[in-house]
């Protein structure tokens, strides 16, 4: 199925800021209120391997901190651009404009390396242009949920997040798995800008 019919071919840095606000939680269930993510923006996912036993061992604050590191690093990298992001407790979803794509890969490699060195946690990371996810049959649609004034974050529909998560976990199409991978060599050991 071609899901690119209403895709934004190229986005501007204010793509997220221009989305209409979803002020009520019930608004997040209305797909008509979401906008097509720009083809050239990158979708990012992170996921802590083995988070359930870590939380059971009393490390929930560390799990949350590690999961939030990618959001902080990417927001700092792309400032002042507003980014759609979603914190999931043991992982995150973030979108990055194309001008920051390569630097975002390095930031993610640094975050992953820091999580391993400082906390002994394995962090999966994946990053991919929205257009590629559409070529593989999933869409990325974004809503801007603002439960309180000035506090907006992204909510996502269309299957692209799930497809990227699976690829980052080593599941699915081999070509997509290779495309979303963040090379270990990008971690130069430099501090992460949190």
Write the topology of this structure:
Blueprint: H1 15-18, E1 21-22, E2 35-36, E3 42-48, H2 51-56, H3 60-78, E4 85-87, E5 91-96, H4 101-119, E6 123-129, H5 130-135, E7 141-148, E8 151-157, H6 160-168, H7 174-180
Parallel strand pairs: 1-7
Antiparallel strand pairs: 2-7, 3-5, 3-6, 4-5, 7-8
Helix pairs in contact: 3-4, 6-7
Main features:
disordered N terminus; 4-stranded mixed sheet; 22% strand; 194 residues
Task: Please explain how this structure is put together.
This protein has a single domain (21-183), classed as Alpha-Beta Plaits. Helix 3 runs antiparallel to helix 4. The radius of gyration is 16 Å and the shape is globular. The longest helix has 19 residues, at 60-78. The strands form two sheets. Strands 1, 2, 7 and 8 form a four-stranded mixed β-sheet that branches. The protein has a four-stranded antiparallel β-sheet with strand order 4-5-3-6, sandwiched between helices. The chain has helices at 15-18, 51-56, 60-78, 101-119, 130-135, 160-168, 174-180, and strands spanning 21-22, 35-36, 42-48, 85-87, 91-96, 123-129, 141-148, 151-157. It contains seven helices and eight strands, in the order αβββααββαβαββαα. The chain has 194 residues and is an alpha+beta fold.
